[in-house]
Specification:
Helix content: 25-40%
Structural class: alpha/beta
Strand order of the largest sheet: 2-1-3-4-9-8-7-5-6
CATH topology of the largest domain: Rossmann fold
Low-confidence stretches: 337-345
Shape: globular
Largest sheet: 9 strands, mixed
Bound molecules: xanthosine-5'-monophosphate
Length: about 525
């Protein structure tokens, strides 16, 4: 593919760098992210239409703080500095950056300071709420610059040099909490850099397929498939690049939903993937027997998964690469990017032992979930895979509270299938982020026919979410809930009571364990 126009993002270590890239992709503009130490010649060799310098965790005045090649500001190309990027521009061009008395983290109000700004133009309201996250600020403007907005604390929140087309924003236009952020970025990209916006996600597919083909050469790639969106779409993408040189392994741990392993294998067959099915369910259930502690369950499952996968991987000769469906939020949450704190260790980011000696292939590493879903559609993945609800790696183990037995799992599977079936029939399933049942190790008294029952209870859990970090419980129509409840009690042996989880996240989590 010939890319006619690029915006280069110089990454100074911000958590939001990939979000800037994502915003540009949404504007249909091709983007390249370069590390802060990229030379001006390297940047120039890509003939960028504009350059964005990201935020970063440092303070520009610290000894050893990240800085950029100053010659980048002599390339004659429009430059937008965001937060730390703005301060770097100011410092390099002779302005003055100082440490503020009051740090500004969170949403702050700013007001335009008049003048005919190129990116805070007439269509932008005079007062805006924006997301600030900084300690330092520009106290003295470099020559040729003008402040275009100020905070209520009289701190310069944006500046520009119209002549040289240099812009600085002390706030983050790439996050949704900043009012008009997208509009301000569009002003830079389209009005200043004159991009045409003719790039497409399908171009990304083409480029990535070529890059995978070049990197892999004649070696083989192995991949552990889970049936989930990310691993399935990465596998389909790599399959497009190298065909049969991709060997996938699907480990059935016995903790999948009703008929799921068969359905998933069938879908993989339709796509043409080369998948080895490994039934390790007995092994998993044996090691889980008697275990009730949630963390212990998770640890056993994680360890066994790796053991089984390693055993299978060793049987594949000539494998040099391990394909993983890592997506960008996994990378951020695992704290592997400079400046992002560890939130949760995801099993697919560096979780496998080094002795396997495989190189990692992670084609979706820079994309967000909804982009991955769009990509899946572009490469022709079936809707069942593209729109599949997230399902935890430890599967039903974290939904079967108390002891895990084949019998209790079957009970849970049957109830869960009814819940999802009724939601689908009511046309509600596709609009829900996750809907599932949880089996409780709690018995209560009931009456069926003329007999007393003493059986376990099942919980209906359905939530809406954007990113699973927070969630709101779904207000499902009571008639649908009633149908689900009646069917579960009538059709599933071992259940005599159905309850509904009406807790959001926080304070609860989505899964029960
Ligand atoms: P919680 O329960 O933490 O779940 O609110 C947030 C999201 O993550 C999913 N989840 C997991 N996904 N491995 C995964 O791949 C796991 O161990 C795991 N635990 C929870 C959960 O289904 C929800 O979408």
């Amino acid at each position: 593919m010939i890319v006619n126009e690029n915006i280069i993002i110089i990454n100074c270590g911000s958590q939001f760098t990939q979000l800037i890239a994502r915003r540009l992709r949404e504007m249909k503009v091709h983007t390249l992210i370069m590390n802060w130490d990229a030379s001006a010649e390297k940047v120039k060799s890509y003939s960028p239409k504009g350059i964005i310098i990201s935020g970063g965790p440092d303070s520009v005045n610290d000894p050893g703080a990240i800085t950029i090649d100053p010659k980048i500001l002599e390339l004659g190309c429009p430059v937008l500095g965001i937060c730390y990027g703005m301060q770097l521009i100011a410092k390099i061009l002779g302005g003055h950056v100082i440490e503020g008395d009051a740090r500004e983290y969170g949403v702050t109000s700013i007001h335009k300071t008049g003048g005919n700004s190129l990116i805070l133009g007439e269509n932008i309201p005079s007062f805006l709420n924006v997301l600030m996250s900084h300690g330092d600020y520009v106290a003295e403007l470099p020559k040729g610059f003008k402040a275009t907005s100020m905070t209520d604390n009289k701190i310069i929140s944006s500046f520009e040099d119209k002549e040289r087309k240099f812009f600085g924003l002390q706030f983050h236009p790439e996050v949704i909490n900043t009012e008009q952020g997208n509009y301000i970025m569009r002003g830079f990209v389209f009005n200043v850099c004159k991009c045409s916006g003719d790039w497409k996600l399908s171009d990304w597919v083409e480029d990535t397929v070529t890059a995978i083909r070049d990197a892999v050469g004649n070696s083989k790639v192995i991949c552990g498939l889970s049936g989930g969106v990310d691993s399935s779409i990465s596998a389909a993408l790599v399959h497009r690049a190298i065909g049969e040189k991709l060997q996938c392994v699907f480990v059935n741990h016995g903790l999948m939903r009703l008929n799921e392993p068969e359905a998933v294998m069938k879908e993989y067959e339709t796509i043409g993937l080369n998948v080895k099915y490994v039934d390790a369910s007995e092994r998993f259930l044996k090691e889980l027997a008697g275990v009730t502690n949630p963390e212990e369950k998770r640890k056993i499952i994680g360890r066994l998964f790796i053991e089984v996968f390693e055993e299978e991987a060793r049987k594949i000769e000539g494998a040099e690469w391990l394909l993983q469906g890592t997506i960008y939020p996994d990378v951020i949450e695992s704290g592997t990017k400079k400046g992002s704190a560890l939130i949760k260790s995801h099993h697919n980011v560096g979780g496998l032992p080094e002795k396997m000696n495989l190189k990692l292939l992670e084609p979706l590493r820079d994309l967000f979930k909804d982009e991955v879903r769009k990509l899946g559609k572009i490469i022709g993945m079936p809707d069942e895979i593209v729109n599949r609800q997230p399902f935890p790696g430890p599967g039903l183990a974290v939904r079967c509270l108390g002891e895990i037995t084949k019998e209790r799992l079957d009970t849970l599977r049957a109830a869960d299938a009814i819940f999802r079936d009724e939601l689908k029939k009511a046309g509600l399933y596709a609009g829900i982020w996750q809907a599932f049942c949880v089996l409780l190790p709690v018995k209560s008294v009931g009456v069926m026919g003329d007999s007393r029952t003493y059986s376990e209870a099942v919980v209906l859990r359905a939530i809406h979410s954007q990113d699973a970090m927070t969630a709101e419980w779904s207000r499902i129509d009571y008639d649908v809930v009633d149908r689900v409840s009646k069917r579960i009690c009538n059709e599933v042996r071992g259940i005599n009571r159905v309850v509904m989880d009406v807790t959001s996240k926080p304070p609860a989590t989505i899964e029960w364990e």
